[in-house]
Amino acid sequence: MYASREDIEYDFRDDSKVGSKPIKPNPNIDGGWAWMIVLSSFLVHILIMGSQMALGILNMEWLEEFNQSRGLTAWVSSLSMGITLIVGPFIGLFISMCGCRTTAIIGGMLNALGWILSAYASNVHYLFLTFGVTAGIGSGMVYLPAVVMVGQYFQKRRALAQGLSTTGTGFGAFLMTALLKYLCTEFGWRNAMFIQGAISLNLCVCGALMRPLSPKDLSEKYVARSDSEENRAKALSHSTETIKSNGVFSEEPEKKEEAANEEVLGSVQHIDIGGKSGSGRSMYGLRILKTVSQLTVTVRKGFALWYSSYFGAASLFTNRVFVAFIIWALFAYSSFVIPFIHLPEIVKQYNLSRQDNVFPLTSIIATVHIFGKVILGIISDLPCISTWNVFLIANFTLVTCILTLPLMQTYVGLAVVCALIGFSSGYFSLMPVVTEDLVGTKHLANAYGIIICANGISALFGPPFAGWIYDITQKYDFSFYIAGLLYMVGIIFLLIQPCLQKKQPREKSTEEAQV
């Protein structure tokens, strides 16, 4: 169905370097502090993704408070969910310059500020700015580092670790829905948002737990990985000569830049040492100069990595399979979001409210979704199983369920389809793993930022599009059919590009034989 591990694994490592001396594995890789990173990411998913899944509670309060149309009010939730993901490429720049820990802490404060300011909203348009934009950007600044840090700390159990951390979304959907419902009933929606803002400050604690690995530890992880995901990515998108000639993945430019940076810092340190006999004021000025120089070097290096990933000669966009992955992401997320938003209306349309009140269909999706992420992660980590094949099978199952759901008119039928949607959508935990397979750990932050940006666009326009289709047809059937067909187009792109990638070397060799 897709390129297996063996098919797409090429070895670009220098065997002389690898075999020259044994490498002592870092105890924090796949163990130790790595599980604290999983806990941190788990809590981030509860507080961010879980809260966004529970926005239906606040949406009803906003409709009653501001007396605006459903379409206009729905944009508040869509903006928050969409911007959280759309800002991914820009958050990648922050991570490259400041690191995951600093980015997450700043994002936690910004997210809490958005919730608190929204408590004083006088109209829906005010919520667009405070909740949709401010809280959305803050959420994005915490969410991406939480995913990237798990990828950095895990080597052998990446899929399982990502699965465990992302189950926070399902738990959060339950916890935050119950919490917001209780707070709105007891204190009103304004005080509920204020309290939720205070709770969101715990995101800063989660960010503080994201202790960065040293460059030495990261380099050891790259070399020690026998089944190198980064090498697979290069094989899918470039030949060895292309990568070396373009220079984005080669180390020589980086070494030259590091030498220049060390020379600059060394000169500052020399001035600092030579000026110890001077006055205290000049010493203080030299320390400031040294700090500014170090900060400038860090920013320059971070921006250079970010720029080369997007606009360099061998940018991520030269990887044709990765571009196909982006196209898939543009259509995939809305297909998962639309059932959550429109299932209550379908239940009402078929007079199934009594059964749905006992066990809501959205709760079935959320519950099975938790197990789906963990089970798919365990399966993908098995040495005989290809993560790519698991990913694609789950996608095919989900798109089939999306197209089938409108045909179900009984509660049992809808419950079975919803359970399959929940389980197959567990592939979300595999997305960071698939991305790392394509581009390598070094470029994971920037690459995954693009993927979640595409998901954000899908989440932003998917639900309003479904509502627009309903306004025209007075049925939700066509919303599911169109979303499913677009989703299928994305999956086809994922299937076609690797096949074309495989054929290219064969065609070239045939032409050379004729010459």
Brief rundown of the structure:
The protein has 515 residues and is mainly alpha-helical. The chain has helices at 5-8, 15-20, 34-53, 55-66, 70-86, 88-98, 100-118, 124-153, 158-166, 168-187, 189-200, 202-208, 215-224, 229-237, 240-246, 252-274, 280-311, 320-349, 353-358, 361-380, 387-404, 411-424, 431-439, 444-473, 477-514. It has two domains: 27-227 and 301-318, Growth Hormone, Chain: A; 319-502, Growth Hormone, Chain: A.
What Rg is obtained from the alpha carbons, in whole angstroms? 25 Å
CATH class of the largest domain: Mainly Alpha
Number of helices: 25
Shape: globular
Q: How would a textbook summarize the main sheet?
A: none
Judged by helices, strands and strand pairing, the structural class is: mainly alpha
Q: Low-confidence segments, ≥5 residues, pLDDT <50? A: 1-23, 226-255, 504-515
H/E element sequence: HHHHHHHHHHHHHHHHHHHHHHHHH
Bin the strand percentage. under 5%
**What is the CATH homology-level superfamily of the largest domain?**
MFS general substrate transporter like domains
CATH topology of the largest domain, what is it called?
Growth Hormone, Chain: A
Number of domains: 2
Roughly what percent helix? over 70%
User: Which CATH architecture of the largest domain is right?
Assistant: Up-down Bundle
How many beta-strand elements? 0
Average pLDDT level: 75
Q: Compute the separation of the termini in Å.
A: 34 Å
